[in-house]
Design a protein that fits this description.
It is built from two helices and eight strands. Strand 7 and strand 8 form a beta hairpin. It is mainly β and 146 residues long.
Length: 146
């Protein structure tokens, strides 16, 4: 009988592309240059037009996380999330990518236990709804110039 597990990988970047942190939420040892940080992701889906315009990430409330999140909101950091499936709960290599999403940090909130970060999701190419975000060249690309 084959058992499976999933892991989430997060890359946090400044607007200029500089990597600030690389975290994964599954194993205590570093995997693919990602260090362990427990977090939970809500709201990733694969629909062309969805009812959810944002992705939420929940972290434990620690000073390091709070300081990073405050800076991420102020500087509109970009977060790339990758979900991978592994054939064994203890496997740390050879995962199959299940989902990838990229968004801009648009807001955050916290209580005494949890810090919640909200990412603006990718633009819906079909519908008329635009998710909450600040438009940057990192999200939209460089404009055409003549």
């Amino acid at each position: 009988m084959t058992t499976q597990s999933t892991a989430a990988f997060m890359v946090i970047r400044q607007k200029n592309g500089t990597v600030v942190r690389q975290w994964q939420n599954r194993w205590p040892q570093a995997v693919e240059s990602h260090t362990f940080m427990p977090f939970r992701i809500d709201g990733i889906n694969s629909a062309i037009s969805s009812t959810s315009d944002t992705v939420s990430i929940q972290f434990p409330e620690t000073k390091a996380v709070v300081d990073l999140v405050e800076l991420a909101v102020a500087e509109a950091y970009i977060v790339q999330l990758t979900i991978k499936k592994y054939t064994s709960p203890s496997a740390t290599t050879g995962g199959i990518v299940v989902a990838v999403t990229t968004g801009e940090v648009v807001q955050a909130s916290m209580n005494t236990q949890v810090v919640q970060v909200v990412l603006g999701s990718s633009l819906d190419p079909v519908g008329a709804q635009v998710p909450p975000r600040r438009y940057t060249t990192t999200i939209l690309g460089a404009p055409a110039r003549r």
